Amino acid sequence: MKAVFRFKSAVSAVALSATLVAPGVVIAQLGTIAAAQAAVVSRVEVRGNQRVDADTVRSYIGITPGQNFSNADVDDAVKRLFDTGLFSDVRISQAGGALVVDVTEYKIVNQVLFQGNSKVKDEQLSQGVQSKPRQGFSQATVDADVEAIRAAYRQIGRDDAQVTAQVTDLGDNRVNVVFQITEGDRTRIAAVNFVGNSAFPSRRLRDVVSTRESNFLSFLTRNDIYDEDRRRADEEALRRFYYNRGYADFQLISSEGVLDPATNEYTVTFTVDEGQRYTFGDVTIDSAIPGVDAATLQSSVETRQGDVYSAKEVEDTIIGLTERVAGSGYAFAQVTPQGDRNFENRTISVVYTIDQGPRTYVERIEIRGNERTRDYVIRREFDVSEGDAFNQVLIQRAKRRLERLDFFQTVNISTAPGSQADQVILVVDVVEKPTGEFSIGAGYTTGGSTGGGPTAEGSIAERNFLGRGQFIRVGVGGGRNSRDYNFQFTEPYFLGRRISAGFDIFRQTREYDEYESTVDGGSIRFGLPITEALTSQLAYNLTREKYEYTDECDRNENGVLEISDNCSLAPAIVTAIEEQSPWVKSSVSAALTYNTIDNQKNPHAGVFATFSTEVAGLGGDAQWVKFTGRGSYYKTLSEEMDIVGVLALGAGHVQSYGQDLRVFDYFQGSDRLIRGFDYGGFGPVDARTGDHLGGSTYFNASAEAQFPLPVLPQSFGLKGALFADAATLYNNDLRGAVGTDMEWRASVGASVIWASPFGPLRLDYAVPIKKEDTDDVQNFNFGISTRF
């Protein structure tokens, strides 16, 4: 409660009155003490109190009988009583030798109730309001709660929700606060329009912003809710999109969301001025620090003459140069880019100037808005701490890291003056968002060794477990003849260092025509980032495989295996079931992953490549070394038509030592190698049964062009693709294996890719154009997209 006091001179006794003129504002009138400016009372009387003990009131006043007090003492007494939040009115007067304190207590809230709500639960609304049971009642607080409830409904797209508050007096100075809610209809986004764009079509720009037009699946994705914060984030996304593609003069003229009351729909419009497209001109480094040789820093420059201008490449260069110079002992060095536009040839020459910045230190880091996320989860993303040299580049890097965590709706880092001239305070303001995920996926496979049929999977994941930044996931899946169970846990900062550690536990069961398998296993893994794009991983893996015959392949009463017409297994498979089950694999694996993909859900540019090796033989039964590698290169072929090209390569080899490979140790053909063939449907086969036995070596390649599907709205998330695949799977030392030479297969086809609420799904139709007589064809494949 804020109090503003006005004093009037008087010769008589003290007279103080307080009147509430507006929520949160008190105007008090005080007659001064006698002309001597001091008085003495023999006692302090408290009146009007019902719940608060009189001695408690006296303790806040601070005026004791027998001691002198002045106007300032009374002023302070009134302020202290109001600051307790217990009283709505306070009057202090002098009656003879007594100081009389008249108080009016706030009523106590008995219950806070919500009526008429179904889209937002009581628990969520209770967390958002300030009125609480067993606390003092305040009309100003109730009015603020009404606005908070309306804001909660705006966040779920119900802008016309009506909220009123009713206060019911229960007697005994107690009240119930009831919020009556009329939820109204859900607002939608009818259109997301762009005005002034010519270099990029509106369809391409709609893919840049996060605001989406409403469609029949919007109730699942919830990305068609109009929100001012989201619109401002979209503005920044558009700026970065243009700046990174050469349009250094780009300006966002305006953006607005207009609601049509008749249809309860928003129309969101972004008006832009694209400007001209630039390329890099001369790129030089100018060092003003003695001992820092500009020539030695050229390897840290990401910008190249003749390349399309990119603000991101400029930022990366600033970071690289700053780190190099700081690593040489110049902690306060600053790198400042200076651009010189040439409007005639549309180039921008950049000079990176390196000089000594002001000696400023970080006094402390203040974090605000993190109600759930622990402070240390945010602090550890900073490469600076209290007492370190202030470095704006490292601050911006920390901001990007915090945004990549995907824990927060917004992240803002600002500075405030410290206690001394060379000290600054970093203020980190975050707005948290839900980090739990529940996903469901479905697919359908035709044919295959497990008979094909519908498949489904579901998982529950939490990216910020208990606010500690940990990842946890539980998943189940399966089909007609398969079951999968898995559990994952990852600690991203093991032992306080930027090293991830985690473990996986899983079980897989498969039922084939003649036998069934059960694989139980787990792994312990560690990950280490080498650069922003390059990461490494080391893991220990332990699995136990068990194979059993089905009813089609059973033993008679004498224990002899009966091979019927329905049970015609290759000798290598019989050996694996008879002699090599159960089978324990104990291995270590290491991997390097390079990832510069611009958007993991909808990539348009960048490289994703991974190389791994696994060595089995640290105990257990398996003894082999396996090498695998794959990479995908994405490039936008046409910005205007939003056509993206994808080139992919892969290879693998497994080599035994000490003992021969089992049939189940070989690579099997799959749609990840080449589409148009059944799983395990190509490569070496058994001469007698025709069963595919897999191969120890494979190579594969793919070329694909992805494009928007015409007519369909972009908000549906559907794209088309045309592709050509080639692969070979060869080498097999098992007895009876034929077709072990390198023979290439090839296929062409088309796909429909759907960025569904359940995850990325795709339908492939492929036709083999080069195959062998022993190959099994599968034209259709529908399932979760896992191309990288």
Automatic annotation (TrEMBL):
Domain POTRA: 39-106, 107-184, 187-275, 360-433
GO biological process: Gram-negative-bacterium-type cell outer membrane assembly; protein insertion into membrane
Entry's Gene Ontology cellular component terms: cell outer membrane
Signal peptide feature range: 1-28
Protein keywords: Cell outer membrane, Membrane, Repeat, Signal, Transmembrane, Transmembrane beta strand
Localization in the cell: Cell outer membrane; Membrane
HAMAP family: OM_assembly_BamA
Similarity annotation: Belongs to the BamA family.
UniProt name for this protein: Outer membrane protein assembly factor BamA
